[in-house]
Amino acid sequence: MASNVNPTVRRRRLGQELRRLREQRGMTAEEVADRLLVSQSKISRLENGRRSISQRDVRDLCGVYEVEDRRIVDSLMQMAKESRQQGWWHAFGDIPYSVYIGLETDAASLRVYEPQVVPGLLQTRPYAEAVVAGALPEATAADIERRVQVRMRRQDRIKDERNPLRLWAVLDESVLRREVGGKHTMAEQLEYLNEMSQQPHVTLQVMPFSMGAHPGVNGQYAILEFPEASDSTVIYLEGVTSDLYLEKANDVANYSVMYEHLRAQALNPDQTREFIEKVAKEYARG
User: Fold this and answer.
1) Fewer CB near the terminus (10 Å): N or C of the chain?
2) pTM of the model
3) Is the dihedral of CA 161, 167, 173, 178 positive or negative?
4) Which DSSP helix (H) or strand (E) runs through 202?
5) Which residues form the HTH cro/C1-type domain (predicted)?
6) pLDDT over 90 for what percent of the chain?
7) What is d(CA 119, CA 222) in angstroms, rounded to the nearest whole number?
8) Exposed (0-12), middle (13-18) or buried (19+): which is 43, by Cβ within 10 Å?
9) CA-based R_g, the chain, Å
10) How confident is the model at residue 1 (pLDDT cuts 50, 70, 90)?
């Protein structure tokens, strides 16, 4: 597979185009499902990019929507073919959050609020090993290593010199205070955070305990934006057994406004570096 083909993003773009064609015909998802003798939920999953789309699905839908331009049909068929190919993460086996990895791999920018642990894109290997082992107490050593390898590979987006992911992260102070992997690991991790925060495409802020209640108290979330104007912004909410992806304009607007309040209330980047350095020294002293 060509390195620039991202199956997750292809599914989203194809789903958006199929939704546009349906709406142009003035049809509901239920009407389309009745015509094709499938469930309405299948049509919805195809349109939101959460289900793999076959070329047969595209052919049948184009028939229902009376798409006569062969160039459009061929383009959609090609997207369907690419959407069924595998991204780099599939080489590591069944990864529960593979949809998110696909989105992150193709995103132009990522805004994230983390209340518990350092974001995966900024974790050192020892810290990542300790986080995964602690979060999955029944996982085997092989499973832990596989997840850590995926996490390290994801960091290629941050280190890509030609097209790095623009990352803005607001961390609760508890992220710095939670001793993951021991004092040495924490000191090393915090020093790495400060090092990465010097990169022009990485902005880091800490939300101190002294701020009290703030817009992030309800938990972690991420906002992913994409280089193509046709790709809608995605709000990602991580769960234990399943994740939630929000794309409706109202949801995106609400979370974006909430993130602006978080950034305004947190320490600024310079204050954040000073704060992290202070805590890192506390760990280094043991």
Assistant:
1) C
2) 0.77
3) negative
4) strand 202-207
5) 18-72
6) 60
7) 10
8) buried
9) 21
10) very low
